């Protein structure tokens, strides 16, 4: 049966606000887009009447590429904007910048912004769907959706009772919060693991376990999501501030084959990229068969296609969004 | 006027047998594949596939094609459209294809199906087989090659095909209103 379902939200501002049904719908749709991406012609005409603006007020390589590919494979027209070299430098406000772009008849905005909550603010000011491609250290919902999609493919659709650990720089990571919320919606047990200085206070208020022992966490976990140390967010021009040295961090929290071998089961290794080989994860682990890092990247395009497709179809009042 | 039964169970089987024989008469299934349009056309395609295998004693390939992403009413349809499973498993490059659907009405689904099919290769030829042809209601210049039964109906009516696998019996009904 063709089922009629839609997302509960007109925009994807974060995982917070999504229901379990929303996540399931995005994953089910992404599965069909994954099939599209494996055909000879990897393109469908679903968004050919849509123009999407990618607004990146912060650096990004894979997320921007992934969104752009997703948009192009849906046949949408794409305009790209990066803050460097734009009128933002001349003092234009965020709302003015976006309204100017929308005046050129843009139908959807994908935005990355360094300020947490920038998307919520913008969503209250403009009428088009907004997709959060990362807001500072707050949320990165599409990353969490693709991480959980990859996990469900690897561990089975039912993540209920599965133990998932997020390891590393939790404090500066938007991937961590979105992943925690998404995994909890899917019924998984979530634990964060890292040095005390890189785990925010009151972490337990989110209902996650906190550990400072990687070896014990590896034995507990079905999957490990290894986060990068975000030197650029630590201030002082990239100097190490939250632990004595990178070498010490690697000794205690770096994932090696020897450490992985302690587990009595095959632990799935994930990494949202970019990888700092030899810091949070060794090259051998990153390239071993337990790592699904490149699957995550592949699924990123399919999941983003699903998000864009479903948002383009959203009808707030139940009526078609475009009446001819 | 009450809802009426267009095709009762006994006749349903006969029609499928006839369609299978017509297909064998005109196609060599060593170079031709069946492709059912999701969701209900693939049910008919699978039934025909079983009959063709029984009649020819040779394998016949059958794919399931979802046309949702190729529809022309994605944003104008009264409700959001979510995709069905697409399960082709083979390319149709250089092959003959018999597209299969349960009910042919406006022709728009078939138009989307032709587009969707091209993503799986360039077929040598495409024919169309349908269980029910609702005549005089076409919005596009599309006509079937193989027809189970013609129906003359008005736009407000709805043809409902019941399948043994789904409803427990085979039957085609003409309803006076679209079920909600």
Summarize the structure.
The complex is a heterodimer of chains A (324) and B (180). Chain A is an alpha/beta fold and 324 residues long.
Unreliable residue runs of chain A: none
In order across it, which strands form the biggest sheet of chain A? 7-6-5-8-9
Chain pair with largest interface: A-B, 32 and 25 residues
Mean pLDDT value of chain A: 91
Our count of helices of chain B gives 4
Instruction: Tell me the span between the first and last alpha carbons of chain A.
Output: 27 Å
Please give the radius of gyration of chain A in angstroms. 20 Å
Query: What's the tally of helices of chain A?
Result: 11
Shape by Cα distribution of chain B: globular
Strand order within the widest beta sheet of chain B: 3-2-4-5-6
Strand composition percent of chain B: 25-35%
Strand tally of chain B: 8
Helix content of chain A: 25-40%
- Strand fraction band of chain A? 5-15%
Structural class of chain B: alpha/beta
Instruction: Give the averaged pLDDT of chain B, no decimals.
Output: 93
Would you kindly provide a written description of the structure presented here, covering whatever features stand out?
The complex is a heterodimer of chains A (324) and B (180). Chain A contains eleven helices and nine strands. Chain A is of the alpha/beta class. In chain A, the strands form two sheets. Chain A has a five-stranded parallel beta sheet, with helices on both faces. A four-stranded parallel beta sheet of chain A has the order 2-1-3-4. Chain A is globular, with a radius of gyration of 20 Å. Chain A starts with 19 loop residues before the first helix and ends in a 12-residue tail after the last helix. Chain B has 180 residues and is α/β, with parallel strands linked by helices. Helix content of chain B is 27%, strand content 28%. Chain B has helices at 9-26, 41-56, 108-118, 164-167; strands at 4-7, 32-37, 62-65, 96-104, 125-135, 146-152, 158-162, 171-175. Chain B has a five-stranded parallel beta sheet, sandwiched between helices. Chain B has a three-stranded antiparallel beta sheet with strand order 1-8-7. The mean pLDDT of chain B is 93. At the A-B interface, helix 1 and helix 11 of A face loops of B.
């Amino acid at each position: 049966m063709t089922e009629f379902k839609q997302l509960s939200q007109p925009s994807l501002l974060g995982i917070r606000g999504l229901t379990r049904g929303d996540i399931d719908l995005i994953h089910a749709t992404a599965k069909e887009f994954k099939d599209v991406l494996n055909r000879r012609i990897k393109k469908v005409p679903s968004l050919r009447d849509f123009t999407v603006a990618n607004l990146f007020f912060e650096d990004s390589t894979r997320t921007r590429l992934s969104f752009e590919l997703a948009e192009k494979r849906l046949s949408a027209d794409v305009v790209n904007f990066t803050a460097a070299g734009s009128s933002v430098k001349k003092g234009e406000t965020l709302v003015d910048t976006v309204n100017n772009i929308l005046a050129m008849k843009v139908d959807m905005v994908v935005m990355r912004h360094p300020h947490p909550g920038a998307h919520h603010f913008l969503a209250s000011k403009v009428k088009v769907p907004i997709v959060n491609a990362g807001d500072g250290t707050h949320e990165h919902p599409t990353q969490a959706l693709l991480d959980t999609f990859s996990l469900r493919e690897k561990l089975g659709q039912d993540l209920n009772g599965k133990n998932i650990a997020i390891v590393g720089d939790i404090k500066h990571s938007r991937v961590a919060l979105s992943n925690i919320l998404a995994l909890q919606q899917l019924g998984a047990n979530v634990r964060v693991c890292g040095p005390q200085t890189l785990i925010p206070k009151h972490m337990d208020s989110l209902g996650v376990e906190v550990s400072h022992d990687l070896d014990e966490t590896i034995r507990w976990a079905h999957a490990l999501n290894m986060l990068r140390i975000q030197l650029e967010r630590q201030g002082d021009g990239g100097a190490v501030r939250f632990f004595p040295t990178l070498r010490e961090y690697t000794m205690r929290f770096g994932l090696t084959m020897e450490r992985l071998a302690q587990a009595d089961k095959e632990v799935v290794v994930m990494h949202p990229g970019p990888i700092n080989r030899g810091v949070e994860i060794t090259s051998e682990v990153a390239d071993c068969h337990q790592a699904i890092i490149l699957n995550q990247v592949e699924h990123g395009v399919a999941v983003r296609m699903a998000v864009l497709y479903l948002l383009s179809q959203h009808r707030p009042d139940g009526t078609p969004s475009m009446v001819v | 006027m009450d809802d009426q039964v267009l095709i009762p169970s006994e006749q349903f089987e006969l029609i499928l047998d006839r369609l299978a024989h017509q297909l064998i008469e005109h196609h060599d299934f060593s170079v031709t594949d069946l492709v059912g349009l999701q969701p209900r056309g693939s049910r008919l395609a699978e039934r025909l596939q079983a009959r063709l295998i029984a009649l020819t004693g040779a394998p016949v390939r059958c794919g399931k094609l979802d046309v949702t992403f190729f529809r022309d009413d994605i944003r104008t349809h009264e409700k959001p459209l979510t995709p069905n499973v697409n399960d082709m498993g083979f390319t149709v490059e250089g092959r003959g294809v018999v597209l299969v659907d349960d009910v042919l009405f406006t022709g728009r689904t078939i138009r989307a199906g032709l587009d969707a099919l091209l993503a799986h290769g360039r077929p040598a030829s495409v024919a169309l087989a349908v269980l029910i042809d609702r005549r005089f209601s076409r919005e596009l210049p599309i006509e079937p090659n193989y027809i189970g039964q013609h129906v003359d109906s008005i736009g407000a009516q709805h043809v409902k095909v019941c399948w043994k696998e789904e409803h427990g019996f085979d039957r085609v009904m003409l309803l006076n209103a679209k079920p909600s």
